[in-house]
Amino acid sequence: MVDPVQHPVNRPLRPLPALVFASRWLQLPLYLGLIATQGVYVVHFLVELWHLIEAAFGNKEALEALVSAIGYKSNVPITSLNETVIMLVVLALIDVVMISNLLIMVIIGGYETFVSRLDLEGHRDQPEWLSHVNASVLKVKLALSIIGISSIHLLKTFINADNYTDKVLIAQTVIHAVFLLSAMAIAYTDKLMSSEH
Fold it and tell me: What DSSP element (H or E) covers 114?
């Protein structure tokens, strides 16, 4: 069946609509800034990983840098890596990776959705989720990523609970619960909207 409505291809836009449509390119510096931020996270990850490797071989300065970075405090001096310090460092590294994944979703998905097509169809490295990305899918994926990041932070806090007040522990738990409820609300709203279509 032939579509009765023929849409002209490459019809030039009137000046005002052309300006409004071209304004989407103002977001390009924002995405380039997020790419630079991704680079900062990579450097941070590599520095922390290097400190962990050095501390594993007995480097005291690297151990002190790690303990300071994770905010771990103990009643006894920390002279070597222990299980708690390793776990907190690994969680911090996982946290960096998850935030980096979040950045990739925002950069690629946001650019594809709001600025311009990337024309990755058929490319062997095209992310699976990009083939069906839209603003709603992006919101749900971002909400789930934020919950994952919040979970890591909450786990780090519970492992290091002696260094936090009860008020901080309760506040972080409540904030995590709010993130969960928000993600469920976003997913439910998206389901309702997609079922209407």
Answer: none
Encode pLDDT of 109-143 as tens digits: 888 888 888 877 777 777 776 666 777 777 877 88
Global pTM reads 0.76
User: What was the pLDDT predicted at 3?
Assistant: 53
Report how far residue 57's alpha carbon sits from residue 65's, in angstroms, rounded to the nearest whole number.
Answer: 14
Residues 112 and 133 sit within 8 Å (Cβ to Cβ) = yes
Can you tell me which residue has the tokens 């997913």?
Answer: 187
CA atoms of 83 and 119, how far apart (whole Å): 47
Q: In Å, how far are 94, 102, 115, 146, 165 from 27, measured between CA atoms?
A: 29, 18, 7, 22, 41
